[in-house]
């Protein structure tokens, strides 16, 4: 048995005279990777995004003390201790970042997010490998200093900059549906019955299905029979979650009348 190089989260039941290999083809094509860093003085998280998959590589915590409120020499000495502790923490994160990111093939860019000035101090550190410095794309203001919630917020803010990533393509696709819905154009179809009607009369242009939907074949079989494009989307984006939770996991965009 040959196993795919990455986990497949999509399940589609389909009766046909050939194998459905498009999820495997997408996996092979989705090699563009972006490094993600969310950092503050107290913690940091390093990961990457490839396709729709986000992986956390390591989380860090620091022992940098909180700011001191005393005055005079005591305050200045304490501030120096804070700065030194902060610098040591960044160097510890950078040491791992250099090792981990240089091993990633097709690393197209790095995005660094966080609250306050930490992210800017981090990217200016001379210990970041000279091969990684040029591909730092942007620093992003976030209300987080690490954790999965920080990585998720960073992905959401940079989605338009993630060129060639399935994650951003899925966000754009769902946003098209939501745009038609907000315009009340009649082209955004939702509800199991209405979607099935649009598929059966072949007016649907794109069928959008959540990977979490049970029994997707009752929709995909009609779409495939009528030559309608099928897009299976993950739950990795807020938009993907919305399709599943608010619309039952299946919608479609109709053709213009």
TrEMBL record:
Kindly give the SUPFAM superfamilies that the UniProt entry links to this protein: L30e-like, N-terminal domain of eukaryotic peptide chain release factor subunit 1, ERF1, Translational machinery components
TM regions (residue ranges): none
Keyword Heme attributed: no
**What are the residue boundaries of the eRF1 domain, all occurrences included?**
34-152, 167-253
- One Pfam assignment: eRF1_1
The places in or outside the cell where this protein is found are: Cytoplasm
> Where in the sequence is the signal peptide annotated?
none
Q: Which InterPro entries match?
A: eFR1_2_sf, eRF1_1_sf, eRF1_2, eRF1_3, eRF1_Pelota-like_N, Peptide_chain-rel_eRF1/aRF1, Ribosomal_eL30-like_sf
* Gene3D superfamilies on file: 3.30.1330.30, eRF1 domain 1, eRF1 domain 2
Domain annotation eRF1/Pelota-like N-terminal: ranges? 2-28
User: What name does UniProt use for this protein?
Assistant: eRF1 domain-containing protein
């Amino acid at each position: 048995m040959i196993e795919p190089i990455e986990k497949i989260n999509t399940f589609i039941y389909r009766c046909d005279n050939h194998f459905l290999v498009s999820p495997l083809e997408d996996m092979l094509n989705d090699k563009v990777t972006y490094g993600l860093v969310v950092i503050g003085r107290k913690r940091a998280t390093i990961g990457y995004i490839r396709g729709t998959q986000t992986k956390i590589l390591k989380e860090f915590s620091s022992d940098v003390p909180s700011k001191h409120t005393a005055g005079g020499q005591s305050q200045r000495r304490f501030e120096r201790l804070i700065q030194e502790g902060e610098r040591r923490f960044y160097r510890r994160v950078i040491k791992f970042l250099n090792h981990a990111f240089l091993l990633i093939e097709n690393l197209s860019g790095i995005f660094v997010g966080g609250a306050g000035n930490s992210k800017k101090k981090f990217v200016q550190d001379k210990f970041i490998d000279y091969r990684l410095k040029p591909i730092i794309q942007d620093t992003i203001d976030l209300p987080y200093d690490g954790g999965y919630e920080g990585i998720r917020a960073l992905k959401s803010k940079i989605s338009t900059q993630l060129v060639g990533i399935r994650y951003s393509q899925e966000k754009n696709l769902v946003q098209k549906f939501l745009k038609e819905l907000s315009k009340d154009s009649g082209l955004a179809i939702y509800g199991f019955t209405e979607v099935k009607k649009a598929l059966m009369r072949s007016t649907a242009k794109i069928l959008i299905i959540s990977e979490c939907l049970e029994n997707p074949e009752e929709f995909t079989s009609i779409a495939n029979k009528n030559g309608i494009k099928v897009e299976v989307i993950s739950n990795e984006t807020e938009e993907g979650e919305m399709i599943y939770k608010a619309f039952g996991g299946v919608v479609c965009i109709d053709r213009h009348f």
